[in-house]
Specification:
mainly alpha, four-stranded mixed β-sheet, 15 helices
Length: about 375
Amino acid sequence: MSPAALFLMRMRGILRKETLQILRDPSSIALAIVMPLVLLFIFGYGVTLDAEHIPLAVVSADTGPMAGDMVARFDLSPHFATTRLHSMAEAVQQLNEQRIDGIIRLQNDFSRRLHNGEQVPVQLIVNGIDANRARLIQGYVRSVMGEWAMQRRARGEEAATPPVSVAQRVWFNEESDSRNFMVPGLITLIMTLIGILLTALVIAREWERGTMEALLVTPLRRVDLLLGKVIPYYLLGMIGMGLSVGVAVTVFNVPFRGSIGALLLLSSLFMLASLGFGLLLSAAIRIQFVVAQVSILAGYLPAFFLSGLLFDLESTPRFIRVISHAVPARYFVAISHTLFMAGDIWPILLPNGLVLAGMAVFFIGLAFRNITKRLER
């Protein structure tokens, strides 16, 4: 029998064995298919950078129609849940008690000064305990006031005219919906967790169940064992990836402007890098509980904090940015955002894809070496 025929025979045997093991162990299917969907729904609906119905107090000492028009703009904004109060003392008390997050104050000469063409100050007081939320409120307030002034000028009515008028246009995320940014990145985090855990428990499970000794006496070669462990879980992980992308597009209405071919190619590289890392851990540690904990600490948490999804890496210290380059999720976050929001922008996709390919080769090579040492003992 030719070497190629022997190789195919060995691969057919090991793949059949792994397939039966997956089918008899529902946890693998749940990990690859059910958990991505559950996590995507939890993160997709629970994690957002937008804010709606922010409790805001409006204190207006001016009862004129111009002041009432501005207050009505805040009432109609989906970002605010306004409460009209009659005194600043009452508003400050509610702010201290954290019943509201901000105060808008209009002076009693608001309408008169606006009618005379003067600059009209509007006071904004924001709870700054959460600095990010405070900046978000400030941006929403400026947006509401800008829309109010623009509509009044369009009707030929008095409005404060700024020295410079900015005509802005948002590219790639026209709705300015943070979900369009979060969901593709969440797919990266979910698939990082799944890709690592799928293979992290494989060899450790063999040692705990005592089946590794049976494999040692078979004619399987090291490369056969490695491929037999990678291929089934790669296919399982890609099914989970496909389901996650489908949910992102159909349920969360995230636009996908790239090509399916580019997504398959680049997600395959990322999946292989994650599977290789998990296989490396599995080959080095024989206890399932320990390898599961190590995979979370060494794989998922760095991807969560150092991928650039939740935190802007450019604003972090230099040594943090250097460390983040060793995290595969950093590169696939950039790839997924580009494919979903911008399209096939290869000057971004290609460098990140090459890094993921290098990481996949590196991790799988180390796993192969470690498996070799185990088999030779």
